[in-house]
Amino acid sequence: MSGKPIRVLVAKPGLDGHDRGAKVIAQALRDAGMEVIYTGLRQTPDQIVGAALQEDVAVVALSCLSGAHMHLFPAVVEGLRKQNADDILVLGGGIIPDEDIPELKEKGISEIFTPGTSTQTIIEYIESKVG
């Protein structure tokens, strides 16, 4: 990594009320030397885009367990594009069926991390793309 830490926004879009996994990821990224901003629960795509721009992040890491990922994740990507911030890496995680992953990637989600993915794998992916 360069001298400047990678800034990551961890966000929970939609009505999903479970954030333990997002908090685990946030802590792992912090432990790896990244600066992490966690938006909390029940964020709209527009709120996430606004926070990403305000915090000048390099990465937005979205977590969704509610099944609304096919709507919410692409809405964040589209919002970033509308703000000319499509250079921000967008990652997704949570309960994402394997059959949804190719379409999410086509819609601009760089990578999807499903349950069981090690935090080290996520850290290494971010560092390889941003660091």
TrEMBL record:
Residue span, B12-binding domain: 5-131
CDD domains, per database record: MM_CoA_mut_B12_BD (cd02071)
Keywords assigned by UniProt, alphabetized: Cobalamin, Cobalt, Isomerase, Metal-binding
Residues making up the signal peptide according to the UniProt record: none
Gene Ontology MF term list: cobalamin binding; isomerase activity; metal ion binding
Source domain of life: Bacteria
Names of the cofactor(s): adenosylcob(III)alamin
Any Pfam family: B12-binding
The protein's name in its UniProt record: Methylmalonyl-CoA mutase family protein
